[in-house]
Write a structure and sequence with these properties.
The complex is a heterodimer. By secondary structure, chain A is mainly α. Chain A contains 13 helices and no strands. Classes of the chains: A mainly alpha, B mainly alpha.
């Protein structure tokens, strides 16, 4: 074997190394400061260089025993792959697309879990209502005393009425109150979503429990003939808030559906399909919670007129009916 | 089998993605240690951002600590829930912590990562991390209404959730399963010098080694790449170690000629010759995996 003999893999590497290095520098810049840091010419070269590197990799696997070369090419092509096939989403466009198409479509896809979640919530509310009417003592079984504040079965008509029409929120500042409400509700909502990962049973409990509380509250007001006032106080934000909780619950149930009934997909794939839609629903619900928090924190304290309260409640109900029923229809996202 | 894995730079953590061009791209599943480290870095960033925001908010509006606290809570909620998905969605699966630890989130199928997927995987964190931690550390408060025997069950449940990634070789956390994603290493490997490159001293009249065909047929690919590793070791191995390797090789291939070459130069020569031999065999479709392989 003579000295002038050159290895094929050595020649192979010598001929192509400069194009690999060019690709490497483009990829590094892309990773660091985004594809917009590349010039038009560089952007056009990127996929070409990527394909060349990919074919180098498959040749190298066949002819070269140089470990260093192989791991270099493996790493380079993987990095380039993620740059070339990066998602094309731009933040603003993605935002609009999401709320116009993805979110309402995901909700429509979740009709069955949504109906189920709604049914559980309503069942909870009815149970809470009837049981509290039957025996006042049940109120404290369903409602955390701390949450109820000074309202309870023994409160007088006047004190209940005063809470419903008070101009002062308990926590003083309206903005603070709205912030607390949002935080509280959104945390419960996300929990309802995530609990779907435990195959759904806890979602049932959470929804039912929230229903119980609502029902118990309704019962103590109904006993004192304050139903109309209570719903006027509750519904303007409640429509949005309850919907958001139920939506999150439906998301959780959807995940459970993927785990328990994968149908003809494998369990892993079914879960993935369900999980992504459910994630979109949970994300959209956070926006609903923001709106509900604002309505609850500001509107409820500032508007005392019962007709206006009911008008707003109706308006939000129609808005959501249109949004989830019609918005973004007829386009595959 | 062992060799084929080594050959493609993969290990037991290896996963392959099929690129649309028809070539399998190898990635390695990130270790939990790295992911944990990335998470701690990100959490530090979130806390820092939150404090910064508060420092600006409080003096800006004359609102007092109460309101500041409320906005802090909301800011904390939004940051905690949106920091991860926004970075992962817009920065190619990498949060600052992941960039520093050189890992990234990818779609299991190799398709582009969607925003939907990153939100889904991050919204599960509540269940996978915060809830189990609360159950483990604050169960006396959380579960005060429940009977005592339920506490150990709840803790067991929490531990299963916390250690969920250990149950799969891809280290899926629940959020990964729900979103169909996986976290992989994205190391930056630089192109090392080719050990088979002609030496600078090539044209000087130095002793040139030749090996017979029999001598070249002793070792296989595995031994060649072990030798490559030895030659590339940094810092270079001690002279005694190299002497030992040389002696071993000489014994094995029955090389009895005298040479004046230093052990390192001998090994470099041997590496070159051996690689040339094995590669040309490979071109003919004969691949000797290791010294036990009777090809």
């Amino acid at each position: 074997m003579s000295r002038d003999f050159q290895l094929r893999s050595y020649e192979f590497r010598r001929e192509r190394a400069s194009s690999w290095r060019e690709l490497e520098s483009l990829v590094s810049r892309c990773e660091k400061s985004g594809p917009r840091s590349l010039s038009a010419r560089e952007l056009a070269r990127l996929p070409m260089l990527y394909r060349a590197a990919l074919s180098s990799l498959s040749v190298a696997r066949g002819i070269s025993l140089d470990r260093a070369l192989q791991s270099y090419l493996e790493s380079l092509t993987a990095r380039a792959y993620f740059v070339v096939y990066r998602p094309k989403e731009r933040a603003m466009k993605a935002f609009v697309e999401f709320f116009w198409y993805t979110f309402p479509q995901a909700v429509r896809h979740y009709k069955r879990p949504l109906q189920l979640a709604m049914a559980i919530f309503v069942a909870g509310a009815l149970t809470g209502y009837l049981m509290t009417l039957h025996d006042d003592a049940n109120f404290y079984t369903f409602v955390n005393a701390r949450l109820a504040g000074d309202r309870g079965p023994s409160s007088s008509v006047e004190s209940l009425k005063e809470t419903l029409y008070s101009e002062e929120s308990r926590d003083g500042n309206l903005a603070t109150f709205a912030a607390y409400l949002f935080n509280n509700n959104a945390t419960i909502g996300l929990l309802a979503f995530a609990l779907g990962g435990l195959a759904g049973i806890p979602v049932f409990l959470l929804l039912f429990n929230n229903g119980l509380m609502l029902g118990a509250f309704a019962a103590i007001h109904a006993e004192k003939g304050l139903s109309v006032d209570l719903w006027g106080w509750l519904l303007p934000h409640g429509v949005t808030e309850i919907l958001a909780i139920v939506l999150c619950g439906a998301g959780g149930l959807g995940i459970a559906r993927g785990i328990l009934f994968p149908k003809d997909l494998g369990r892993v794939d079914a879960l993935k399909v369900e999980g992504r839609s459910a994630g979109a629903i949970a994300l959209g619900s956070i926006a609903l919670f923001v709106l509900a928090g604002l309505l609850e924190g500001f509107f409820r304290q500032m508007v005392q007129d019962i007709y206006v309260r009911y008008a707003v409640a109706m308006a939000t109900a129609f808005l959501w009916a249109w949004y989830f029923g019609r918005c973004g229809k007829g386009r595959v996202a | 089998m062992r060799m084929d894995l080594k050959q493609h730079g993969a290990s037991e953590r290896g996963q392959s993605l099929m690129a649309p061009e028809g070539v399998a791209i190898q990635v390695e599943v990130a270790t939990l240690g790295r992911r944990g480290m990335a998470f701690v870095i990100d959490l530090t960033c979130i806390t820092g951002l939150c404090l910064l925001l508060l420092m600006f908010l409080i003096p800006l509006i004359d609102i007092g600590v109460d309101v500041g606290g409320a906005f802090g809570l909301v800011a904390w909620f939004l940051l905690l829930n949106f920091y991860f998905p926004l970075f992962e969605g817009l920065k190619g699966g990498r949060t600052p912590g992941k960039m520093l630890t050189k890992i990234r989130v990818i779609d299991c199928s190799g398709a582009a990562l969607t925003l939907k997927a990153v939100f889904a995987r991050n919204f599960m964190r509540d269940l996978e991390l915060w809830l189990p931690l609360k159950v483990i550390f604050f169960n006396s408060i959380l579960m005060s209404d429940l009977p005592g025997w339920s506490v150990p069950f709840a803790i067991l449940w929490a531990l299963v959730l916390l250690f969920f990634p250990l149950f799969s070789s891809q280290r899926f956390r629940l959020g990964d399963l729900v979103a169909g994603t996986m976290v992989v290493d994205c190391p930056r490997v630089s192109l090392l010098k080719d050990l088979a490159a002609p030496l600078a001293s090539d044209n000087k009249e130095e002793e040139s080694l030749t090996f017979t065909k029999e001598q070249m047929s002793v070792y296989g690919v595995y031994e060649l790449q072990v030798l490559e590793e030895i030659l590339r070791q940094k810092p270079p191995p001690k002279k005694e170690v190299l002497d030992g390797v040389v002696a071993k090789i000489k014994g094995k291939i029955a090389f009895d000629r005298k040479t004046d070459l230093s052990p390192r130069a001998f090994l470099a020569e041997f590496y070159r010759a051996q690689r040339a031999h094995l590669e040309s065999e490979m071109a003919l479709g004969k691949k000797k995996l290791d010294k036990f392989d009777e090809h």
